[in-house]
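Run log // design_07
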């Protein structure tokens, strides 16, 4: 469900970097999850200075779908800066952030929303297993 002129109930913010190959799948999966919810929503996509065709895909998605808003940073500032840009532009009462590579599946959004009740202001998910190269896992273990 999309909103016309009023603030949406939910904003999904995605920092995008060189992900022209996953954007269509990401948007499709987001719609499969968000459309059945009884909430208005927007999808805020922030291109973090991609060098591939990501920006073109984001512009096209925003032109084709009123629930998609696209922004572009002048250069690659990093995922946190792109996410912060999206958070600042988000209009929803509730904001969910996701990765552009589908590492955090959109199908988990209803679980996060269900956990927001009563006096809970913030919910975050922790993966039960990490899909990382052994060397990266070793480096993370040594760091921690």
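design_07 sequence
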């Amino acid at each position: 469900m999309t909103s016309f002129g009023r603030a949406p109930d939910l904003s999904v913010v995605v920092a995008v970097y060189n992900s022209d190959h996953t954007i269509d799948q990401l948007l499709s999966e987001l719609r499969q999850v968000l459309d059945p919810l009884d909430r208005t929503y927007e999808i805020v996509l922030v291109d973090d200075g991609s060098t591939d065709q990501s920006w073109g895909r984001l512009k096209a998605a925003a032109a084709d779908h009123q629930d998609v808003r696209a922004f572009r940073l002048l250069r690659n500032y990093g995922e946190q800066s792109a996410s912060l840009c999206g958070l600042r532009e988000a209009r929803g009462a509730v904001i969910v952030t996701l990765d552009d590579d589908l590492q955090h599946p959109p199908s988990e959004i209803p679980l996060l929303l269900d956990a927001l009740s009563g006096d809970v202001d913030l919910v975050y998910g922790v993966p039960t297993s990490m899909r990382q190269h052994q060397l990266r896992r070793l480096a993370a273990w040594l760091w921690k």
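Strands lie at 10-16, 41-47, 68-72, 94-99.
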